[in-house]
Amino acid sequence: MLRIKDANLNLSDTITCGQIFRFSIEDDNSYTIILSDRVINIKQDNNDLIVKSNNEDNLESKVRYYLDLDRDYNKINKRILKLDPNMKKIVDDCNGFKIINQPKFETIISYILSQNNRVPQIKKALDNIAYKYGKKIIFEDKEYYLFPNSEDMKECSIEELRNLKTGFRDKYIYEFINKVNNKTIDINSISDMNSDDAMTYLLENKGIGEKVASCILLFAYSRLDVFPIDTWVKKYMKDEYNITNIKDIKRFTKDKYKEYSGLVIQYMFHYKRNKENK
DNA sequence: CGCCAGGTGCGAA
DNA sequence: TTCGCACCTGGC
Questions:
Q1: Which CATH number belongs to the domain containing residue A19 in this structure?
Q2: Which window residues (230-249, chain A) lie with Cβ within 7 Å of strand B?
Q3: Could you list the pLDDT tens digit for every one of the 278 residues in chain A?
Q4: Which domain holds residue A189?
Q5: Å between A261 CA and B11 C1'?
Q6: CA of A236 to C1' of B2 (A)
Q7: For the domain that residue A193 is a member of, what is the CATH number?
Q8: Cα–Cα distance between A156 and A175 in angstroms, integer?
Q9: What region, left, alpha or beta, does residue A36 occupy, with left being phi > 0 and alpha being psi -120 to 50 degrees?
């Protein structure tokens, strides 16, 4: 067991806001998460986190990175308030909300699955894939399956993916895995690109459009300047500012929030869904 | 039953 | 370049 002091994390908001899929909420209000090579259980204890795992190696650094604990959000929030003082209430209410650093391959597959799909079905398909191709882990007497890497899935067929309930996205996933395995694409190289180049690189893959690419960049590559525009953001922008066109939403947000556009959109969305009227 | 979801690719204009 | 439509699946 590990205690991380003064994490300044709002655990439940960060986990349940829709950035990640493969987690469960336990009776004691802790969260069990399947994180790359291990299963972790995290419980918030005031400003501390209590972490358990089947694998204690480098656990603290792993968790700190995953939950983005070493980024100075106070500084970022100050910058956001300088850009737009009207954000005061939202920024205050989102204190402790972080953008997670998720494993790259899993995130890309997850968001390819997310198009025209619902969260429970995305989770189910991901679990099916992990069950079939991933490594079994026992943690506190329960079975979990790690998400496989592209090598683990090299023998998979489109038909198998369809059977795992990926739907019409089966061919996109199949194609993507093959491109990773034959080195047509290199998902690690995206880390070294600027956000525009990274976006272009991702968009070359079938099944990855602007929304999906934005989610991947924000949640797996820490690009806080990139913002996914989904139906909810569109609704928010229409209701709040009467802006409907995607290009206008992009320009408006970029002009206003600059290098933190993506984070601010998450704050707004999160506030709108969870905090307002509560 | 018919409708549609935290989009995208595709063919038609 | 832009526009409209189909799309696995499952829950309502």
A1: 3.30.310.260
A2: 230-232
A3: 999 999 999 999 999 988 999 999 999 999 999 999 999 999 999 999 999 999 999 999 999 999 999 999 999 999 999 999 999 999 999 999 999 999 999 999 999 999 999 999 999 999 999 999 999 999 999 999 999 999 999 999 999 999 999 999 999 999 999 999 999 999 999 999 999 999 999 999 999 999 999 999 999 999 999 999 887 788 778 888 888 888 888 899 999 999 999 999 899 888 877 656 54
A4: 104-220
A5: 35
A6: 28
A7: 1.10.340.30
A8: 11
A9: left
